[in-house]
Specification:
Blueprint (H helix, E strand, L loop, with lengths): L2 H10 L13 E5 L17 E5 H9 L1 H10 L14 E2 L5 E4 L5 E3 L14
Antiparallel strand pairs: 1-2, 3-4, 4-5
Helix pairs in contact: 2-3
Length: 119
């Protein structure tokens, strides 16, 4: 992944883990797995989030963590488009991510708060 993409993902996510909110020992996580040497087409901003290294590992090693990740949108099936799957942050707030490095908060029945969040 290009360093410029990595920096923009950290900026969009404020450098904190979607799972727990820490800013320590975090990494970029692919919501849809790339696989070993997989396609760089999955390096789209909607498919990339900041995740703590501990939970990033757990999602692949522990069934309960995997199920939680699927429920919260941190893991996305290869048959789905990440940009269309809601993702929940550590505070329980729900967002949609786009491929322009923006996140749109879901408020009530609206799909966004009128503009991308730039907290």
């Amino acid at each position: 992944m290009k360093e410029s993409i990595r920096k923009r993902i950290f900026k969009r996510d404020h450098g904190i883990c979607w799972h727990c909110g820490t800013d320590e020992n975090v990494t970029i996580h692919h919501r849809t797995n790339r696989g070993m040497g997989g396609s760089k087409n999955l390096d789209m901003p909607s498919n990339l989030v900041v995740m703590c290294s501990e939970f990033n590992f757990l999602m692949e090693a522990d069934l309960a963590a995997f199920r939680l990740a699927k429920k919260r949108g941190w893991k996305v099936s290869k048959y789905q488009r990440a940009a269309e799957i809601e993702i929940e942050n550590h505070e329980g707030r729900t967002f949609l991510l786009d491929d322009m490095f923006r996140r749109w908060e879901k408020i009530g029945n609206r799909e966004d708060g009128g503009s991308p969040t730039q907290e």
